[in-house]
């Protein structure tokens, strides 16, 4: 497990964009298929609120495997969404998903100590996010507390799914290796995170202002920002793959999902 310099965080982002650029339509189609599937799962009574979270590790492997295919010159198809459903990894990925859910619940519950449960109500759909709530400093502090409480779990989950799928690790071992891999390369992850925050905030603002000046219509701005946000999200997903390969090496599994 290598310790990487801080500037590698920017390299991860560049490599993610390079992967997307090789098959932009195919990667975007995979993402849209994922969104449609999540929407369909979300309308299932009772389970619709928790299944999308529990299945995050399962579906995350679709995008990781898609990056493998792109890297090897193989086509990406929507059937890659089934990648994480392969046994024996599927059961362990589901177990990891349950841990995702528990960690999120505990982090949001911790925020209730700050704002009396307002953030919890908003996240669970029990309260609308109105302007007064957003302006409340306790609400902002509660969000920060929840984020800080979830950070150790996020570190443990970051590489857990690919380590389970590609290196046949158990859930506990994968979480352990993931946590210390992120901790060891904290500076690179800091650069990576800051780069995405800057791009995610500055780019939409610049584009929306330019479109607003040229056309002066909010509908035109939205028509431009929607596909831009999709592209940025897919590129971000693609950039997760080089964070894995730079530390754990390239997966040895054959490319799948070909037709």
From TrEMBL:
It comes from Noviherbaspirillum cavernae. Keywords: Membrane, Transmembrane, Transmembrane helix. The chain crosses the membrane at residues 90-114, 139-160, 188-214, 220-240. NCBIfam families: BPSS1780_fam. This is Transmembrane protein.
């Amino acid at each position: 497990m290598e310790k990487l310099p801080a500037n590698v965080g920017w390299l991860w982002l560049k490599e993610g964009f390079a992967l997307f650029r090789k098959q932009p339509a195919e990667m975007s189609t995979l993402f849209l298929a994922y969104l449609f599937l999540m929407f369909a799962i979300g309308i299932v009574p009772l389970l619709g609120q928790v299944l999308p979270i529990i299945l995050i590790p399962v579906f995350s492997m679709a995008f990781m495997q898609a990056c493998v295919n792109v890297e090897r010159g193989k086509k990406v198809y929507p059937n890659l969404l089934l990648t994480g459903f392969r046994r024996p990894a599927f059961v362990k990925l589901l177990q990891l998903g349950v841990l995702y859910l528990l960690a999120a619940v505990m982090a949001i519950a911790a925020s209730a100590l700050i704002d009396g449960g307002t953030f919890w109500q908003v996240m669970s759909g029990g309260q609308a996010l109105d302007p007064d709530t957003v302006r409340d400093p306790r609400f902002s502090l509660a969000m920060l507390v929840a984020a800080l409480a979830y950070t150790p779990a996020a570190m443990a989950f970051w590489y857990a799914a690919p380590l389970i799928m590609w290196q046949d690790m158990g859930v506990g071992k994968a979480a352990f290796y993931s946590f210390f891999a992120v901790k060891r390369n904290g500076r690179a992850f800091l650069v990576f995170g800051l780069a995405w925050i800057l791009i995610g905030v500055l780019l939409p603002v610049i584009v929306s202002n330019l479109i607003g000046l040229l056309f002066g219509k909010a509908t035109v701005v939205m028509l431009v920002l929607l596909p831009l946000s999709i592209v940025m999200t897919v590129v971000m997903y693609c950039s997760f793959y080089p964070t894995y390969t730079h530390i754990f090496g390239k997966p040895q599994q054959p490319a799948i999902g070909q037709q």
